[in-house]
Amino acid sequence: MDIREIRQLSDEKLIDALEDQREAMFNLRFQKSFGQLEDENAIRLTKRSIARLLTVMRERSLDEQGRKGQGK
């Protein structure tokens, strides 16, 4: 997923996408352990997708905390 696409997702869809990517990573690791993994880059790309999702989630969390801090 592209970072622009990720930033447009709602919070619920962001969580769903993260769960999907983590499940995909689990499956890719299984395939690798059994020697059935066809695309070696798939693991790397999935890790990056997970990192992007977590980054956007963290950005939103910090933004929300910043807004709460300004209201004091």
Please explain how this structure is put together.
By secondary structure, the chain is mostly helical. The chain has one domain: Helix Hairpins (Orthogonal Bundle), CATH 1.10.287. It contains 3 helices and no strands. The chain has helices at 3-7, 11-33, 41-70. Helix 2 (11-33) runs antiparallel to helix 3 (41-70). The longest helix has 30 residues, at 41-70. It is elongated, with a radius of gyration of 16 Å.
Question: Any chance you could write out the topology, listing elements then pairs?
Answer:
Elements: H1 3-7, H2 11-33, H3 41-70
Q: How many H/I helical runs? A: 3
Question: What's the architecture, going by CATH?
Answer: Orthogonal Bundle
Structurally, the number of domains stands at 1
Give the total of beta strands.
0
Helical/strand content category: mainly alpha
- Cα(first) to Cα(last) distance is 37 Å
